[in-house]
Design brief:
Elements lengths: L1 H33 L5 H28 L26 H19 L9 H24 L3 H4 L8 H19 L20 H19 L10 H28 L4 H18 L5 H24 L8 H19 L2 H7 L13 H31 L7 H6 L1 H6 L17 H6 L11
Helix pairs in contact: 1-2, 1-3, 1-7, 2-3, 2-4, 3-6, 4-6, 4-13, 6-11, 6-13, 7-8, 7-9, 8-9, 8-10, 9-10, 9-11, 10-11, 11-13
């Protein structure tokens, strides 16, 4: 029976890892759909590249810094350049657990790089991905998931509202401040111009992909099939996401007079972000409340950031940061004693007789991790800016679009006039190759 459970746990966690990795497809479509057409190809290419680079960094040092032995106050200090060792006595294959954790690291850097959108040099993505994967993400992940000091205090973050989402969002915030707003985003009087995304259908499809992948994200974090608890986690996840979408729709209708599509999509994502910390610790009804609050919070967070002249192109801070804070704090209110005991993390929240102790631990964790991620990311970017002679493309390059300026071709060459169009098969046959014409033509 132990061998069967070992194999089933490994299979379930591997399926979950695949779902999480496939979320990268969702992020590609979400960023491309939410940004302007002239940057669509750049978004797709840099997302694939940075996930690959982040994976190598995680293999080389990230995993060891999170889960390695001989840990100091900040990180672990072993298992670098992980060799795929299998250990006896574990409940699942160590290699599967490694791939699962690698996927989480890749998602966090993808969120962080959202703050670079439409104005950063490709070289900036390269350098920041490496340094974020060494100095930022693994430190916070060790504190909470790797047996670090916040784990010792009982901080509850089941699948990463803090570790993955808040960490990535604070790095994105640092990037938006260092890089400054996109050309034309704000007027001299402080008012903002709307840069509409070029494809709302892409964005909606992206959110659906992320929704499905999130079931691997949250339910997969059980890393076990024992008792089918992953089903309970999945239930809370679906309900919170649904509540977030409904709440965001209603608040946009009330405030704007219309059901704004980007707001609906952001509301669902905010519900997912918020429940990520608490999905294993709260009753089902509480997941609905958490999602409803997240949908409202993300709407006002986006408006506040824009009013503060912070250009958050894909709503990384409004969707992953602020709801991540709320979701992490929510366990301090709603965590039940029975679920905290069964998961072996922390204790009951304020509304279940636990007093303010768990709420304080959650607040402390959010504050310390958020500040650390922001300060270190800001410092990295500041040094990069000085050492690299700037990390933002020129004004001319930004206006023409990063597709052509950074990669030499458009994601939509026919639509953007980079290639001739052919109206019919006959025209295609008669089309002239200018390279084969006499020189006098």
């Amino acid at each position: 029976m132990e061998e069967v459970m070992y194999l089933m746990n490994s299979l379930w966690t591997m399926v979950a890892a695949i779902l999480v990795i496939f979320m990268i497809a969702g992020f590609i479509l979400l960023e491309a759909g939410s940004l302007r057409m002239k940057n669509a190809g750049h978004v797709a290419g840099k997302t694939i590249f940075t996930f690959g680079l982040a994976s190598l960094v995680f293999w080389a040092v990230g995993y060891g810094l999170i889960f390695g032995d001989n840990a100091n106050f900040f990180t672990g200090m072993s298992n670098f350049f992980y060799g795929g060792e299998l250990t006896e006595g574990d409940s699942l294959a160590a290699t599967v657990f490694f791939v699962f954790q690698l996927a989480f690291a890749g998602i966090s850097i993808t969120i962080a790089l959202g703050g670079f959108a439409e104005r950063a040099k490709f070289s900036a993505y390269v350098v920041f991905t490496i340094l974020f994967g060494i100095l930022v993400y693994p430190v916070i992940a060790h504190w909470i998931w790797g047996g670090g000091w916040l784990a010792e205090h009982g901080k509850q973050d089941f699948a990463g509202s803090t570790v993955v989402h808040l960490t990535g969002a604070m790095a994105a915030l640092a990037a938006t401040i260092i890089l400054k707003p996109r050309i034309g985003k704000f007027n001299k009087d402080g008012s903002a111009n709307k840069f509409a995304g070029h494809n709302q259908v892409y964005s909606a499809l992206a959110v659906l992909i992320l929704f499905v992948g999130w079931l691997g994200f949250n339910a997969g974090s059980t890393v076990s099939v024992d008792g089918a608890f992953f089903g309970y986690v999945a239930l809370n996840t679906v309900l919170a996401a649904s509540a977030g979408a409904v709440a965001a729709t209603i608040i946009s209708w009330v405030v704007l007079g219309k059901s704004d599509i980007p707001t609906i999509l952001n509301g669902l994502l905010a519900g997912l972000v918020a429940i990520t910390a608490s999905c294993a610790f709260v009753d089902v009804w509480a997941s609905v409340v958490i999602g409803l609050m997240a949908g409202v919070i993300t709407f006002f967070a986006a408006r506040f950031l824009e009013a503060s002249r912070i250009d958050d192109p894909i709503f990384a801070v409004a969707v992953h940061g602020v709801p991540g804070i709320w979701g992490t704090l929510s366990t301090g209110f709603f965590a039940t004693g029975a679920l905290a005991e069964s998961t072996g993390v922390g204790q009951a929240g304020l509304f279940y007789g636990g007093g303010v102790e768990q709420l304080w631990v959650q607040f402390m964790g959010v504050a310390v991790c958020g500040i650390y991620a922001f300060v270190v990311s800001f410092a990295i970017l500041w040094v990069m800016k000085k050492a690299m002679g700037g990390i933002r493309v020129s004004e001319e390059e930004e206006i023409m679009g990063l597709d052509i300026s950074e990669h030499g071709s458009y994601g939509y060459p026919e639509h953007l006039g980079a290639e001739p169009t052919v109206s019919s098969a006959k025209d295609e046959q008669n089309a002239v190759d200018v390279n084969q014409q006499p020189k006098h033509i």
